[in-house]
C-alpha cells in the first residue's frame, strides 16, 4: 500500500491484543513466542480471523519480538528471515487479502544503545518483513525517541510503505526512556512517519488529554491503542484487565472525538472489544 493511500483511509480500525490472548490459548510464560506460534499456528490464526471478522482493517503480524536481540536469547537469530516470513504468512492466511497486514516491530528494551546498533537491528527485520510481503509497518510499544527514529529510518530505507509509530507512555505523556511524546511525535512526522500515537500504557479513559494534544500538533493520523483499563496484579502475578468491551468501546469513541483516527486495543482486549468498537462507529 502507498503512503498516500494510507493517509486517505479515514478512520482505521486496528486489532486488539495478541500476547494476552495467546497465553489464554495455552502459550506458556518464558517460551520463545515466535517459535510457539509457529508450532501452534491454530491459536494465532483463529484469533486473527476473529479480528478480521470483527471489523479490523489492519491486523498486526506476530513479529513483535522477531528481531535479532530477542531471537538470540533463544538461539534463533540465524533464522530471523524465515521466522518473519512464516509469521507474516500465518497472518495473511488468517485475514485474507482484504485486510492489511502490518509488520510489527518493537523496542529493544534498553535506553543506552547506539543509533548505529539500533539501525542495524531494525534494518534486518524491516528487510525481512518487506520480503515477507507486509502492507505497512508498525513500530509499537516504543519507549524512546532515538530507537523509534532508528526503526523509522530502517523502514523508510527498506520499502516505500506506510509506517505507523506508537509509544507506550505515562498518563502525562512521558516516554520511559526520557522526554515526552509531545516533543517526539512532531519529529517523527518530520522524518516521514504516516501515523503517530500511543499503545498499551493505560485505559482509553486516561488517554484523552494526550490524544487531544497530539492531534492539535500533528498533520498525520493519531493512533490510540490502549489497554482494557489499568491492570491489577492477581495472586499468581498475572496482570488482570477489568474494563469490559462496552466500556472500552465507549472510551474509544471519546478518543476519536479527541482527534484519534487509528483505533485499536492493546493488553486485555480481544475480538469482542474490536466488534463493540466497530458497532459504535457505525
Ligand atoms: Zn499492551
Report what the structure shows.
By secondary structure, the protein is an alpha/beta fold. It has a single domain (3-281), classed as Homocysteine-binding-like domain (TIM Barrel), CATH 3.20.20. Helix content is 46%, strand content 15%. It is built from 12 helices and 10 strands. It has helices at 3-7, 19-24, 33-39, 41-54, 68-72, 80-95, 115-132, 145-158, 181-190, 208-217, 245-257, 271-281, and strands at residues 12-13, 58-60, 100-106, 136-142, 163-167, 195-200, 222-226, 232-233, 239-240, 262-263. The strands form 2 sheets. An 8-stranded parallel beta sheet has the order 1-10-7-6-5-4-3-2. A two-stranded antiparallel sheet has the order 8-9. Helix 4 (41-54) runs parallel beside helix 12 (271-281). The radius of gyration is 17 Å and the shape is globular. The chain starts with a helix and ends with a helix. The model has no long low-confidence stretch (mean pLDDT 96). Zinc ion (ZN) is lined by residues 200, 227, 266-267.
Q: Give, in order, the helices and strands.
A: HEHHHEHHEHEHEHEHEEEHEH
Proportion of residues in helical segments: 40-55%
Radius of gyration: 17 Å
| Percentage of residues in DSSP E strands | 5-15%
DSSP helical segment count: 12
CATH architecture: Alpha-Beta Barrel
The kinds of small molecule bound in this structure are: zinc ion
Question: What is the overall pLDDT average?
Answer: 96
Tag the structure with descriptive keywords.
TIM Barrel; 12 helices; eight-stranded parallel β-sheet; 282 residues; two-stranded antiparallel sheet; alpha/beta
Amino acid at each position: 500500500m502507498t503512503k498516500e493511500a494510507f493517509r486517505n483511509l479515514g478512520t482505521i480500525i486496528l486489532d486488539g491484543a495478541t500476547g494476552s490472548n495467546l497465553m489464554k490459548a495455552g502459550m506458556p510464560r518464558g517460551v520463545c513466542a515466535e517459535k510457539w506460534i509457529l508450532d501452534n499456528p491454530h491459536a494465532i490464526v483463529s484469533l486473527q480471523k476473529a479480528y478480521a471478522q470483527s471489523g479490523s482493517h489492519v491486523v498486526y503480524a506476530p513479529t513483535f519480538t522477531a528481531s535479532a536481540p530477542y531471537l538470540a536469547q533463544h538461539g534463533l537469530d540465524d533464522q530471523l528471515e524465515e521466522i518473519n516470513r512464516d509469521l507474516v504468512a500465518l497472518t495473511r492466511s488468517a485475514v485474507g487479502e482484504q485486510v492489511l497486514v502490518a509488520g510489527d516491530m518493537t523496542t529493544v528494551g534498553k535506553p543506552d544503545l547506539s543509533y548505529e546498533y539500533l539501525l542495524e537491528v531494525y534494518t534486518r527485520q524491516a528487510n525481512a518483513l518487506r520480503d515477507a510481503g507486509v502492507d505497512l509497518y508498525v513500530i509499537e510499544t516504543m519507549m524512546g525517541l532515538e530507537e523509534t527514529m532508528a526503526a523509522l529510518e530502517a523502514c523508510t530505507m527498506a520499502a516505500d510503505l506506510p509506517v505507523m509509530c506508537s509509544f507506550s507512555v505515562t498518563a502525562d505523556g512521558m516516554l520511559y526512556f526520557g522526554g515526552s511524546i509531545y516533543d517526539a511525535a512532531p519529529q517523527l512526522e518530520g522524518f516521514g512517519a504516516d501515523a503517530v500515537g500511543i499503545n498499551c500504557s493505560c485505559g482509553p479513559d486516561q488517554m484523552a488529554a494526550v490524544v487531544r494534544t497530539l492531534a492539535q500538533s500533528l498533520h498525520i493520523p493519531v493512533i490510540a491503542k490502549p489497554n482494557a483499563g489499568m491492570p491489577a496484579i492477581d495472586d499468581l502475578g498475572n496482570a488482570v484487565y477489568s474494563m469490559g468491551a462496552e466500556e472500552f468501546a465507549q472510551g474509544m469513541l471519546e478518543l476519536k472525538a479527541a482527534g484519534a483516527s487509528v483505533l485499536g486495543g492493546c493488553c486485555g482486549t480481544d475480538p469482542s472489544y474490536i466488534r463493540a468498537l466497530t458497532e459504535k462507529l457505525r
